[in-house]
Amino acid sequence: MSEKKVRHILGLSGGKDSTALAILMRRDYPDLEIEYFFCDTHKELTETYTYLKRIEDWLQIKIHYLEPDRGFDHWLDIYGGVLPSPQVRWCTKQMKIIPLEKWVGDDEVVTYVGIRADENRDGYISTKSNITAKFPFKEHGLVKADILRLLAESGIGMPDYYRWRSRSGCYFCFFQRKYEWVMLAQEHPDLFQQAIAYEQNHRDGRTYTWTKGETLLELLERKDQILADHDRAIAKQTQETPNQLLADVLSAVLDEEDDTLPCLACHL
Known about the structure:
alpha/beta
């Protein structure tokens, strides 16, 4: 009796690291049959879907779009209107992890995770015994500069939202920094208004906020100050480390403003 086939999977988030990992695996392991997936919450930026299509076209791969059985609004109601937060990440569980583990089932699976050698985190590691995680970047000692080189040399490049946002994820992701919220209002005013509605619309009159200590409307009132502070930080970073790509400068400034680790299942 033949042994059961092992599945090899790689999750794409629409961000630079998971994309670079797909490039690396396609280049160095062309004969490995990898299944690529994206956990689709239907709350993504349009730029994310555009970038995923670019990845498919350039690498000639198929991306499986995994969806939860019920959408965000259903789970928001189940959790009593409590918005997800760094302390209560119910969105990750219900809209990312459960759909992934349902897709995998009981198959023996090796999942390749795009965590770099210069990052102090492990990413999503399943507790299911049939899922084994591998970290090619860590195994090969690849750091951020290597990831950027992979993206540039492949021709895929960076997603468009990296002009103003340093992480992938839902448009209302609670890990966004103040500057990123201001830029969401500028780049996607309709989505910003929807994020405001999620803060305000609760039957019992409660108010939850996406950012600690203030509502999005209060944050937007400070828009000019937030943008001015950001511009000063960008200028300082550029002066201290010249010849950096704009995306790197932005990422460094935002990381300095907020070093909270992003969602381990979403931001790769």
